[in-house]
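Trying the structure run again after the queue cleared.
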Amino acid sequence: MKRFFALFMPILLLVGVVAATPANAQFIDWSHANVTFPGNNMVINDLRFLGESFSACWELNGTTGDWILQNAVTGATGNPCDGAGPVDGQTSTVAVCVTDATTGDPLSGASVSLDSFSDTTGSDGCVEFSNVPYGTYAAQASAMGFVDSSTSATVSQPSQTIPISLSPIQAEGEWRIVLTWGEFPRDLDSHLLVPGPPGYHIAFYDRGDLSAYPFANLDVDDVTSFGPETVTIVQPVAGIYRYYVHLWCCLDQAQLSASQAVVTLFSGAAQIASWTVPRNSGENLWWHVFDLNAMMGPAGLVSVNNFVSVEPSAP
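Done. Tokens:
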């Protein structure tokens, strides 16, 4: 019975508040309740019903805008979203779409796997998996002439697209940074600060140059969801490169932490690292992902992976 109330009552309570239904409200003690919005979740702590405290977690569906109950527990504190499993039986139709990181063009014939789900992409670069249970999966893709790529992907919507962008194999010592994200927000931007002197700031408004300093270039600038947004370095220079992501548009669509953004770093014929956007960005618009002494190779990589309230400056 307790499990029934823990899962069922938060839905009734939320509906009762919106509808201002006196019949529900008379049993509910909201005087101690605390509502927070960590990441793309909504948490209500210490909502009291029949003398017992409950805490519940809802997750925002980025496609429909609906709030979906993920977990409800007894107790007044803590984050019920931590370790929250989906409601029994929730499944998704997942499209994994593979592109060329340097052009954004779809890659047909790429091999794709999502844990035990596997198939080959069609002419649109996508493969669709049905009845995928909600959860976190190892997403992998490979294609001839490209570096194999793997990342972690969370399935949490009834219909969802997971973008994977593959880097063409580069010469030893060259680097490539690839940003992908979900449907919302529409536009995330890559920023790379190149060491100097004189120093250089690569972004959509100044895409760089591969044949002269900064010997780096923004290959693809995507403004219509999913990415890729790609920066290539063909000739590393001495000093520290700094890479970060900016939520350009639109905060009313989704927080940065709800963007499903992934940054993947490649060098030569290898994937060096991958970062999934952390939780709890709040109103922060900047995600400082890493610093890199590119001339030292992978040993020069420093993972930062933090949100910041102001645009990062040069190291």
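The chain is about 5% helix and 45% strand. Worth checking whether this holds up in the mutant runs.
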